[in-house]
């Protein structure tokens, strides 16, 4: 089956036998993301988590100072 990436609108061919293809067929909602976009979002999420940890660490440090 052919699927469209919700982010960059690129069309990709999906093997009908894969779990993802079956899931998309059952619920044809905007859930497909191409690998490129998937990786990009994963990176962004990881970066945000890293930033969050960093801030948390700094807050904790300034708390210790008080
Ligand atoms: Zn994409």
Q: Could you outline the blueprint of secondary structure elements for this entry?
A:
Blueprint: E1 2-4, E2 11-13, H1 19-26, H2 35-65
Antiparallel strand pairs: 1-2
Bound molecules: zinc ion.
What does it look like?
There is one protein chain. With 66 residues, the protein is mainly α. The chain has one domain (2-65). Helices cover 59% and strands 9% of the residues. The protein has helices at 19-26, 35-65; strands at 2-4, 11-13. The chain has a two-stranded antiparallel ribbon. The radius of gyration is 19 Å and the shape is elongated. The relative contact order is 0.13.
Short description:
With 66 residues, the protein is mainly α. It is 59% helix and 9% strand.
Observed structural traits:
single chain, two-stranded antiparallel ribbon, 2 strands, DUF2197 domain-containing protein, binds zinc ion, mainly alpha, 2 helices, 66 residues, 59% helix
What's the domain count? Answer: 1
Sheet with most strands: 2 strands, antiparallel
Order of helices and strands: EEHH
Shape: elongated
Estimate what percentage of residues fall within beta strands: 5-15%
- Count of individual beta strands: 2
* Rg (C-alpha, Å): 19 Å
Distance between the ends = 61 Å
- Report low-confidence residues grouped into runs of 5 or more: none
Total of DSSP H or I helical runs spanning 4+ residues: 2
Helix proportion = 55-70%
Order of strands across the main sheet:
1-2
Mean pLDDT metric = 80
Bound molecules: zinc ion
Helix-strand makeup class:
mainly alpha
Pfam family, one: DUF2197
Organism: Metabacillus lacus
InterPro entries: DUF2197
Protein name: DUF2197 domain-containing protein
